[in-house]
C-alpha cells in the first residue's frame, strides 16, 4: 500500500540524551567557580597566609633558633622602642625609599617622554634601558661593590689617576653618609627601567590628536604636559609609584650584598635588620617584630594607590567626586 501524498510527514526530533551526574556537575557555575578558585586559594594559603600569620605570631614570642618560645606580648616591640639601631634603620629605610623613588620617577619619566618621540634606533634604546632591570640583583650588587671599593674603585681611579681631579681615593662604603648615598645610587640605577617602560606604555595610550589640538590652540610644551600628559598618565603613575615604593621599602638583596648594614649599622634597612636579628642573631621573635613593624608603612603605600586610582575619571574627562 502506498502512502498518500497528502499525509503530513512526521518532523525529525533530536533524540533526548540524559546527562550523567558528572556532566551536570561541570555545567554548574557554582562548581566551576569553586574548582577554579581552589588551587589559587590553596597556593595563597600555603605561601602567603601561613608565613604571614606565623611571622606575626613569632613577633609576640621569645622564640630563638633551636628552641621554641612562649608568648610574651608586646615585649619585643617595647625593646625595639628603645633600640637606637632599630630607629636608625627606620630613618634610613624612609630616607632610602623617598629619595630613591623621587629620583627614579624624575629620570624614568624623562626617559619615557624621550622614548615616546620619533628617535632613530628607538627599539634598540628600549632594549638597552631594560638591561639594569634584567640583570640579577646580586650580580648588580657585586658590580657596584667593586665600583665602590676603597682601593680598587674604577670611579676613584678615573678621578685620581686619569683626570687628576682628586688627590685621594674615595671611601664610598667606609663612612655612613657616603655608603648611604652609594646604595641610593645603585637602587636608582636598577629601578629606572621599570619606571621608564611602565610610563612609556601609559604614554602610548594617549591619543596624538589631543596634542595636535593643543598645538593648534597654541599650547606650549609645558602646558601640553600639565594639561594632557600628566592628568591622563595619573592612573598608571599611581600604580607604578606604589610598586616602586613597595619594592624599594622592602629591598634586601642590594643592601645586604653591598654593605650588610655597615658601616656601624648605618645602612641597615628594616628588612636587613630583621634578617640580621632573626637568622644570624638567632632571635627569631625580635626579627619577626621588626618585620611586622614594616606592615603599617606598606599599608599606607597601598592605600595611596587605592585612593589615587579612584581619580581614574580623569581619563574620561569627568570631574572627580
From TrEMBL:
Keywords from the named record: Cell membrane, Membrane, Transmembrane, Transmembrane helix, Transport
Record membrane topology: Multi-pass membrane protein
Superkingdom to which the source organism belongs: Bacteria
Compartments where located: Cell membrane
Transmembrane segments: 30-50, 89-115, 127-148, 191-211, 232-250, 288-309
Residue ranges constituting the ABC transmembrane type-1 domain according to the UniProt record: 90-305
GO terms under biological process: transmembrane transport
CDD domains: TM_PBP2 (cd06261)
GO CC terms in record: plasma membrane
Family: Belongs to the binding-protein-dependent transport system permease family.
Name listed for the protein in its UniProt record: ABC transporter permease subunit
Organism of derivation: Teichococcus wenyumeiae
Amino acid at each position: 500500500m502506498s502512502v498518500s501524498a497528502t499525509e503530513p510527514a512526521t518532523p525529525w526530533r533530536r533524540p533526548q540524551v540524559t546527562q550523567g551526574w558528572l556532566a551536570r556537575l561541570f555545567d554548574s557555575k557554582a562548581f566551576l567557580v569553586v574548582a577554579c578558585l581552589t588551587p589559587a586559594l590553596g597556593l595563597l594559603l600555603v605561601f602567603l597566609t601561613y608565613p604571614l600569620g606565623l611571622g606575626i605570631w613569632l613577633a609576640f614570642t621569645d622564640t630563638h633558633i633551636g628552641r621554641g618560645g612562649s608568648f610574651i606580648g608586646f615585649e619585643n616591640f617595647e625593646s625595639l622602642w628603645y633600640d637606637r639601631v632599630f630607629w636608625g634603620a627606620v630613618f634610613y629605610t624612609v630616607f632610602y625609599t623617598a629619595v630613591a623613588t623621587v629620583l627614579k620617577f624624575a629620570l624614568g619619566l624623562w626617559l619615557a617622554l624621550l622614548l615616546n618621540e620619533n628617535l632613530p634606533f628607538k627599539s634598540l634604546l628600549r632594549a638597552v634601558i631594560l638591561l639594569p632591570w634584567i640583570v640579577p640583583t646580586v650580580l648588580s650588587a657585586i658590580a657596584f661593590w667593586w665600583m665602590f671599593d676603597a682601593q680598587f674603585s674604577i670611579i676613584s681611579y678615573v678621578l685620581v689617576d686619569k683626570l687628576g681631579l682628586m688627590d685621594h681615593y674615595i671611601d664610598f662604603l667606609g663612612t655612613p653618609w657616603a655608603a648611604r648615598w652609594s646604595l641610593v645610587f645603585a637602587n636608582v640605577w636598577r629601578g629606572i627601567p621599570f619606571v621608564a617602560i611602565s610610563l612609556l606604555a601609559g604614554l602610548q595610550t594617549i591619543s596624538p590628536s589631543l596634542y595636535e589640538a593643543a598645538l593648534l590652540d597654541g599650547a606650549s610644551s609645558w602646558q601640553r604636559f600639565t594639561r594632557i600628559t600628566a592628568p591622563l598618565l595619573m592612573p598608571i603613575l599611581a600604580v607604578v609609584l606604589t610598586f616602586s615604593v613597595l619594592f624599594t621599602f622592602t629591598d634586601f638583596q642590594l643592601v645586604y650584598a653591598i654593605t650588610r648594614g655597615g658601616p656601624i649599622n648605618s645602612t641597615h634597612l628594616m628588612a636587613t635588620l630583621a634578617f640580621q636579628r632573626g637568622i644570624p642573631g638567632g632571635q627569631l621573635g625580635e626579627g619577626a617584630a621588626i618585620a611586622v613593624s614594616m606592615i603599617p608603612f606598606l599599608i599606607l603605600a597601598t592605600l595611596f594607590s587605592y585612593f589615587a586610582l579612584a581619580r581614574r575619571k580623569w581619563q574620561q574627562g569627568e570631574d572627580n567626586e
